[in-house]
Write a structure and sequence with these properties.
Blueprint lengths: L3 E5 L8 H15 L2 E8 L1 H10 L4 H20 L6 E7 L2 H12 L3 E5 L13 H9 L3 E5 L4
Parallel strand pairs: 1-2, 1-4, 2-3, 4-5
Bound molecules: adenosine-5'-diphosphate.
Amino acid sequence: MYKQILVPVDLNDKGFSDKAVEQAVWHAKHGNAEVHLLTVLPGIHMSMVATYFPKDAAQKMKQDVKSQLRQFASQYIPEEIVYKVHVAEGKPYTTILDHAEKLGADLIVMPSHKRSKIDKVVLGSVASKVVQNSPINVMVIKPQG
Ligand code: ADP
């Protein structure tokens, strides 16, 4: 049974992330696991914000993203499930893997693609790098699954 389940969520293109959360919740219910939602803000955006806007703008942006993620979580995760939301900066796939390690995650659940790119390749770019490099199991959610 999995105990710490990580679901990376791109808030700019949520696509079928709700399906990934649904699977994570199912496993959490049956294994008494904790669910973690993670959104990664690509570092370059944050450094642009830090350069061109007032000092606290980057921090504020991070907080705004966190509250959007909380809202997403409350929409799809039932109350009885223990969950946390995380916002981090960096390269999406390495940050997802770093967080998985930091949280002691034993499963990553993620969509195969963002909605916009479904027909073009077998796996999206972030999804394929996570699958290739993750030491723990990755459950890849397909749009029709
Ligand atoms: P595509 O190449 O079709 O855009 P991706 O591989 O980027 O597809 O996206 C598939 C999944 O990867 C997303 O649904 C999400 O789970 C994860 N992902 C991608 N970018 C991010 C991000 N910035 N933060 C968190 N998760 C992400």
